[in-house]
Amino acid sequence: MSEQITTPRIAMRGISKNYGGVRAIRQAELTVYPGTVHALVGENGAGKSTLIKILAGAEQPNTGTIAFDGEAVSIASTTDAIELGVQTVYQEPQLFPELSITENIFIGREIKRGLRVDWAAQAAQIHELLDMIGLPHHLATAPVGDLSIAQQQQVSIAKAVAGEARILILDEPSAILTDTEINVLFSIVRRLTARGVAVIYITHRLDELFEIADTVTVMRDGQTLDTYDIKDLTVTKIAELMVGGIVTEKRPERSFDGLSPTLELHQLDVGHLLHGVDLQIRPGEILGLYGLLGSGVAEIAEAVYGMKQPTGGRMVYQGKAMVNKGPAEARRRGITLVPANRSAQGVFSFQSIRFNISIGDLAKLSPVKGWINRGRERDIALDLIKRLGVKTPNENQPISAMSGGNAQKVVIARQLLSTPKLLILAEPTQGVDVGAKEEIHRLIGDLAESGTAVLVVTTDLSEVLRISDRVLVVREGRIAAEFGHDATQVDILAAASGAVPIRKEA
Amino acid sequence: MRTTEKSRPQVTAGIPVAKKILPSLVTGQEVVLIGIIAVLWILLGLLTPAFLTAGSILPLLVAVAPIALIGVGMTLIIITAGIDVSVGAAIMVTSVVTSQTMVATGIPLIPAVLLSVAVGALLGLVNGYLVAYGKIHAIIITFGTANLFQFIGLRFFGSSTVNGLPDTFDVFGRGEAGRTFGIPHSFAITVIVVALAWWYLRHAASGRHLFAVGGNETAARLAGIKVKPLILRTYVITGALVGLAACFLIGQGTSTLEQSVGAGRELAVIAAVVIGGTSILGGRGTVLGTLLGAILVQTVTSGVTQMGWPSQLSDFFVGVAIIAAVGTDILRERSRRKS
Amino acid sequence: MSTTTLKRNDVQQRSHGFGYKSVKMLLTQRIALLGLLIVVVLAVMMSLDAAGAMSGSYDADYLAAALISAVPLAMLGLAELMVILSGRGGIDLSVGAIVSLCCIVFGYSYGIWDLGLFPSIVITAVAGAVCGAINGFLVAYIGFPPLIATLATFYAFKSLALIISGQKPISTIQIQDFFSAAQSVEIPVIGYNLPNIPLGIFTFLIPTALLAWILLNRTTFGRRLYALGTNDVAARWAGVDTRANRMMAYVLSGLISGLVAIVIVAQFASARPDAGVSGNGLALPAITIAVLGGVAITGGIGRVSGILLATLLVVWLNAGILLAFAGNEGTQLQLLALGLLLIGASLLNNLTRKKFGVLY
């Protein structure tokens, strides 16, 4: 990279942002040069998304300056950002499924001749764009809803480029893509940088940085540590920078020898998402499953819980082959699950805490089948509220009025109406404050002590190390590595990001 | 990974593929409908020789006109993920206001039509304003306004019918006065309106925006589309078309206007729209499909009579047609999304 | 977001004056608002009566007699409650057509085949449930939008009723005698100084409402229905069979419509094949009652008491309008009142949700 002499496309200096009393980022610095790919890495909550939102005009910084091509600018809204040429491609494509690719790209700023959309003029422009993103011309008129996720993402990028992008922000674009699709993405990115676009590339998959990035800025705890030339880095080095010198306190080492496993997975396949997954968990054991978004880690939990049907291999539960047609069947067996997306999959928002707890096992509410004994329901709810330390004046409060941590405790309580034999927790502490996180971790420990096998699926690195007896790292639908009690954050991150070849089994 | 070409019938006859700059002209649902209508007409023609004569087909087309005409507006509304169940009551209001004015003042054709259209547009404005700016689900709002419009309509009617209607609207009627070169005026106007709406939905930027609003309202707003005025406009257009359709209905009727002139029409219109392949969830639909849907419904209705079956049986077939049309659409969408 | 901001209501400590509290209660508790409106309607009508502006006397006897029209209205309101609660655009346009079809079923089984009252009632109710099951299957298992599925079955059932009956009402001697089931009766023991109440209130409405209430509030089915109406995805993750339970809501709606058919046969002493679909039909008023009663069109919110109070409000308001305005004007003003109530109620629902977040 020889153009370091040129003016930076964007220079963010001393950026801080507080939410209420909480500092999301402080004194962050980011300098991106035209024609380069600048990677931004950091753990969840390190402040990457806040920094990007400030650049995209979605948030206003409390302090700091932004210079664009050497001139100081203020980005007060997303419109301001778009006018400067800052375009963002989010993971969720903001597209219209029934409209064609061409229309999606031109929506809101169609080329018109009188009242009529000038299709010919748009087509002329679109073909150039399609060439650049590597889609065949005949797809120009295809409804976007007919495209694959990867193709939709390409359309989003084309849309951003058509909006005269001078800085293109790609927010974890590779998370949802397969390897071949990622290669297509990279060639698009290279073509863009060749045209002088500055690309800010956010990712968790550290291995791909060496293929695509020119420079890397690492964020930790709301600060930008430093910016490095990719040539000076390795996956392990980046992982070390991301996690810093923090040593998480560990649970005492425990042994489960001699106990027969609660659950075994043998060569489990789920479509093209999981391939030959083997796994064992014993009573009282806390098994951490760590994997990046799109790694297949979520599908393991869903298959065990009956939300997804395996397409190959088998599951053995308490020594017997198991097929779960649905969650209800899994729950009858004593397998419960705390879903990852609390607001979409977890809470019944305007219903009471009592309602939100008891829905987990209505049969428990009365000796007569199908009947609800309100007194018993109340007692059970109050008991769990007390056990889990849910902060609420009474059990009739709507769950929508509660903080994230308290709502999460209620969703967990729902899984504990009868002590589960196997408890699966997906992202148990996402969007939860520090105090509640502490309490939830303690609760998980207590449950394991009492003999429940606990499977924790998380993308929170410190969490997985802190509570697990054993950690399995999932990558590309396979178990990539297994770590015992002595694992470090760097080991796990490196394994999940592709520094270690995937363990192949016979 | 997936072949998108196979999931939709590509009707590209005559257009070289490389030059293709627009989505295909005709959707799968429309092809299916044309096929079904053709089969029905041929069957009915074989079974009852009288069916394929002008004496049978022309009244059929005249009867299609008002439903298809309102259907055009309803299609626009449903594409934005709205609905209007007040059109039946709005027909009553526009037709009673227009016919009473005609009886009282004897105004000629053009002013009478304009009056009816203006009254209809005003009613549409009420609906559109409440739906777009009141942020209440369209079905609730229009259930409410249906009651209000009925009240207004009945107030105009008083306790009786409107009698002694002049023959001003016979140009829209079934008779000789309603045709030029054998083509019914009302149907010809409907075809013109369908063509205009087809052009609007296919080529005008704001027409394309309707699909965007129905597909993802938030994203549409972020793309800089002014969503509320756009939604408002669809209801006003529908109201105006209701006004025109009311003129057709008066012309088709006798010299007496009954209070029941609009009763149940809203469901007939919605049936035509959904049979035509417009998704009630928004974001997808065609006016050509709606016209075909209306023709199919009317074919079934007159077919039942021609066969000498009890006329009430036609509603049963309409129900079956809705389930078949929407059912195949649901299954087709499901396989399309899955592939 | 993920950090330590506790949301305001974790411990609700804000204090407000009495005025604020009562406004909040009226807006968030639909029952309170309906109760107040009923009192206002009664007060206004009675003072009009006292001032001599009424063509008849708006007294307890009149109010009790007016309840005859509350029976089908409230029952169909309960039917709509079931399906609207189930969420995903739940609605049933076919209730009127099911009523028509079931009128004929009852007409045949009681009036023509002479199967006896109890078997006839069972057959009619089952017929309604089967109609509802068709709706439920289309909606829950095939994935039809409820509006479309029930629009289609509306046409089909309506047509079947007319075809089966040959478009002629059934009014054999048994059916004519059945009129007694719609008469007003004196309540035993305490009834001598109370007005006579239409029998249908006791034989149909109260049992239906009671069963609906028990079903929704005291059974696991009710819980599951509220759960899937509130959040269909979360219900699935919690192990609720969303399809079977959603289908059941439509079955119940059909079942209740079947029972309404019997009430209507009694009221008219005749089993008419167009009983549920003539004029504006019965679906529209039923949906109006449900929305007015505080049922959220988005699902998961709604109570039996709301339906009952909304029915009382509409019935007594209508009864008053009929006395205050002679003839046609009265029936017309009923439409105006219903339309304004519906739009007003939904605007109010919106306001409440914006201001207080929830509505019960």
Q: What is the number of strand segments of chain B?
A: 2
The profile of the biggest β sheet of chain B is: 2 strands, antiparallel
CATH architecture of chain C: Orthogonal Bundle
Largest interface: B-C, 43 and 48 residues
Helix proportion of chain C: 55-70%
Distance between the termini of chain C: 29 Å
Strand order of the largest sheet of chain B: 1-2
Task: Give the SSE layout.
The complex is a heterotrimer of chains A (506), B (339) and C (360).
Chain A: E1 10-19, E2 22-32, E3 37-41, H1 48-55, E4 63-68, E5 71-73, H2 78-84, E6 86-89, H3 101-106, E7 112-113, E8 116-117, H4 119-133, H5 149-162, E9 167-171, H6 179-194, E10 198-202, H7 209-212, E11 215-220, E12 223-229, H8 235-243, E13 263-270, E14 274-281, E15 286-291, H9 297-305, E16 312-317, E17 320-322, H10 327-332, E18 335-338, H11 342-346, H12 353-358, H13 374-388, H14 404-414, E19 422-426, H15 434-449, E20 453-458, H16 461-467, E21 470-475, E22 478-483, H17 489-497
Parallel strand pairs in A: 3-10, 3-11, 6-9, 9-10, 15-20, 15-21, 18-19, 19-20
Antiparallel strand pairs in A: 1-2, 1-4, 4-5, 7-8, 11-12, 13-14, 13-16, 16-17, 21-22
Chain B: H1 28-47, H2 54-79, H3 87-105, H4 109-134, H5 138-157, E1 179-180, E2 183-184, H6 185-203, H7 205-215, H8 217-222, H9 227-252, H10 265-275, H11 287-306, H12 313-338
Antiparallel strand pairs in B: 1-2
Helix pairs in contact in B: 1-11, 2-6, 2-9, 2-10, 2-11, 3-4, 3-5, 3-9, 4-5, 4-9, 6-7, 10-11, 10-12, 11-12
Chain C: H1 18-28, H2 30-50, H3 60-66, H4 70-85, H5 95-112, H6 117-142, H7 146-165, H8 173-177, E1 184-185, E2 197-198, H9 199-218, H10 220-230, H11 232-237, H12 242-268, H13 283-292, H14 304-324, H15 327-356
Antiparallel strand pairs in C: 1-2
GO cellular component, one term (chain C): plasma membrane
InterPro entries (chain C): ABC_transp_permease (IPR001851)
Protein name (chain C): Autoinducer 2 import system permease protein LsrD
